[in-house]
Amino acid sequence: MEPGLNYLYVKIRKDFGQQVRFCEVPAVMLDSIDPNKLDQKQYCLRNPTSNESQTVIKLSEHYVNTKKIVLRDQGVNHVEGGWPKDINFQDEEATSRHRRRFERDDSYVSAILNSYDGLKHLIEQNNAIEMYNMYFKEINSEEPVEKYFVRKSIVFNDPDERPIASIGWTHEDDSKIVVAYCNKNYPVNRPVNKNATCSIWAIENSAETYTDFIPPSFCWKVACSPSNSSEIIGGLQNGSVCIFDIRAKKEPIAISPIHLAHRDPVTALLYIHSRLNNEFFSGSSDGQCMWWDIRNISRPTDNLVMSIHAPSSPDDGLKYTEGISALQFDRTFTTKFLCGTDTGYVINVNRKGKNHAEVMSAIFSAHKGSVKSVERNPFIPKFFITCGDWTTNIWSDDIQSSPIIFGTSHPKQISDVAWCPQRVSSYMSICRDGIFRYWDLLRKYYEPIVVLPVSKYPLLYIRPNEEGKFVAIGDTKGSLNLITLSDNMVYSGDRDRNLIVQHFDREARKEHILETRVREIRLKLKLEAHVPVDSTLGKVDDETLIHNAEDEYRKVVGEEFKQFETVPTTRGKSLKTVKH
């Protein structure tokens, strides 16, 4: 190395700085540089912008040698089905003659002989592996195991957290959910309802409502038209009914006058399936059932007072009425319907009856409290289900004394129940513990087959759509939960209908026998009650009762001894008389 390239650097030890200590020390501000406003003005804000950062540099290289595919478009011109021009393809004799002439051609024969080797190889290969052999033929086939699946898909929340008062589904391909919000508690100190707006939700969008409609009073019940998906009927708190057309405006297009409507809030509202689908009827806690025509709701077309007792005079009016809590009509006879009352009765009503006995044709003492819901089986209308207090019961039109199937008691008060629209043996129930229960009478009799916790708040209403795939459930905090069911929970099996009909008939026959026996016992007691009894024997002291019981006991024992007066000996062939 040349001398001119050397450089000597000398530094004193005290200038090296402090001794290095490998330990944690607090952060120290070494320097702070303020931004320069002039330099900042030379730049502009770029929005939007994107930047990717990674700790290492991305390096990727790959080579693939693929086969070269040459594509070519080629068309074939078929004239008269591929036959020559001089051959009429519709003439069977001409085509068969041409076919025989073509088969005798040498080129055709050589082509068939050349393909023989390949075809023979394939046939021998199939025979070697026994492609069409049936394996495990000796094993008996087993029924597939049913796996039930249910999940909570979507939750539609109300910003005001109002309790859900009623739920309905529009009748269209893309069904939407119509929801009415209202607190049905009686106001004591201050009003319990402030916002009367009702919502319509689309299943695809849970962030915002599809549309809203505003009733003039708080809406207790909603019903959707079976023929017009944009037409909605509302039952109001002031007893009126109104019609909404969501295509026109949010306010009702027609409303019934208050003086001709119900005196209490509308608690039941239902469309009547008819040829024109223009009739519906409503029920209220004032004990009246009214029929309406959507073409003119200025006054009801018919009115019926619900009373299990015949009125003593025409001036009784609404004196002995039963408050209506649920309605359900018979699809086979539109003039007959079921009415659930606040006092726990279910009345089978025929509105075309000539007298009170024909109108109130049957009265069922269903529950100890208000009947929350009553629904006929969609496949077997003769049987219907009710819910109230802590139980759900299934009834038959022919048995009035008791239900044919007693449901299992729920841990808390039951809120609503609904049959599955497409499954004949199943129904769904909810109660105030926030749990959804799915029942199948053919699979499990006394317990649900699926239990799903839906909400931590009490559930109020349940409504499945027409196909039965989705189930809408509302709670007290305004949350509308959409439940999705698996296919084996939606559709019935091949034998389910026959089996459930046999099961219902067997239970109805058993209850009919018990009802007949109870009627005989009551008749016997009634006859014995009319037998004259000496008034001096009305009061009997304890000693007389004990003495009579002892005499009756000795009499029974004596009769039993007389029956076994002669018994056979153990070894002898003759009989031996035994004296007691």
TrEMBL record:
Keywords assigned: Cell projection, Cilium, Cytoplasm, Cytoskeleton, Dynein, Microtubule, Motor protein, Repeat, WD repeat
UniProt-annotated location(s): Cytoplasm, Cytoskeleton, Cilium axoneme
InterPro entries reported in the protein's UniProt record: Dynein_IC, WD40/YVTN_repeat-like_dom_sf, WD40_repeat_dom_sf, WD40_rpt
A GO term, aspect molecular function: dynein heavy chain binding
GO biological process, one term: cilium movement
Source taxon at top rank: Eukaryota
GO CC, one annotated term: microtubule
Protein name: Dynein intermediate chain 3, ciliary-like
Protein source organism: Vanessa tameamea (Kamehameha butterfly)
Lineage of source species: Eukaryota, Metazoa, Ecdysozoa, Arthropoda, Hexapoda
